[in-house]
């Protein structure tokens, strides 16, 4: 039976990846609430602007959904924010410990040390943050308009105890700012899907029960159907994909363990809500470029192959495990780009549907793959970034049916990735400046999903039989006198191939500059919070 979700009750940033809808710019605001009554009034006045997960339409009478918004707005709360808004102690105590403690208190688990230590974060993170509010839109004008509407609530309702916090690091000679702006990066005036290191980003996201085809890709986003499910033992079904359980991402629904995830009480407070991790990650572009230039001099295959080995994808997004040849990868990327252009040029609904179908067929090759034929990492290193973040069953070494149980280890660690790049790397040889990625991860369990992946798979390598080797890109590699101590091994497919390649002196390419844990309530729970009627009894 299909899982029916109340999309009108679930906030839009959970189910929708806004950049795919053309909302390629964002602004993130953080508030402190010094008076519970004023805080609840503020939330109550924000609710009409909050975007749900309901489908967007152009207003056709025969189409379900809501009108396509000019800008999307979503809201979330820290533990201390809920406390200051007057949520009852019994409800507060029912939240998971990691959410109560907050990101700063979990810094040891997250590896936020050295240049990533919270003491070095942007000034805004030295304040006690209570409310997160995001604005996503397609233009700077739409962002500014919605920002002014939100700020007008504070002045028109005389909410002087609800403070928009300053302290976001700005560009050179700009000082601090009252908000964090983010945007896709542009090349020659054209928006791209790249981040500052030059990799195409945001390619793969989980697909779970209750999602519709326009919300993501089932092939590669779901889980492998190794048991047939609709006919056990039928080999024709073994290559198909099934959606993940909803409860891996949304509270109040069963997860991959066929249990309900830990959630706050009362049930209405939790159902259709989720948790969000927000992290501001600075990218040391100069250090990355210099390392790549230097190490590629003696690397067989050259600079672009070395960059692909770091992440498990060519910089155009094509997976290296299935496309080890750069020319073939470039050809596939070109086909995908042309398919995107065909969608944009389609003039009738029929033409658009046909173009979208052609795109999805090409796009499967970016999503629907595993490492069954590359278990030793001869093409995609076992320690590559994308393989660490989503092993796709490859941790079951030698077992080509790694998804045989409904709670297979990989399926319990998946994350919905949101966010955009921020800033601009003016000098490709410099690490200075204000540029990087706003990383947001949405899941039902911060501890079991985000924290596990970062601690055990990104900053530790034992599950991959790599001892304490870290993720080459995200790992918190130690450094001494500017020299990195990280290491990465490129495997071989068989004893007859070339020997493994050892890459040494990996430095820390990415530094944390801020972040926190948030609870995204449903629209129902949001109204309960605003009215002060959350009753845990």
List keywords for this structure.
single chain; 537 residues; alpha+beta; 5-stranded antiparallel sheet; 16 helices; 18% strand; globular
Describe this structure in words.
It is built from 16 helices and 22 strands. It has helices at residues 12-15, 36-46, 79-84, 89-93, 97-101, 107-110, 140-156, 218-221, 267-270, 285-295, 303-311, 326-345, 349-367, 385-389, 446-458, 523-531, and strands at residues 25-33, 56-57, 66-67, 71-77, 131-137, 162-164, 168-169, 176-177, 180-183, 186-187, 190-191, 223-224, 241-242, 274-283, 416-418, 421-422, 436-443, 479-480, 483-484, 486-490, 501-506, 510-520. The two termini are 33 Å apart. The radius of gyration is 23 Å and the shape is globular. With 537 residues, it is of the alpha+beta class.
What are the low-pLDDT stretches, counting only 5+ consecutive residues below 50? 229-234
Number of strand segments:
22
Q: Which structural class should the secondary elements be placed in? A: alpha+beta
The average pLDDT score comes to 91
Number of helices: 16
Beta fraction of the residues?
15-25%
Shape: globular
Distance between the termini: 33 Å
Radius of gyration using CA atoms only = 23 Å
What summary fits the major beta sheet? 5 strands, antiparallel
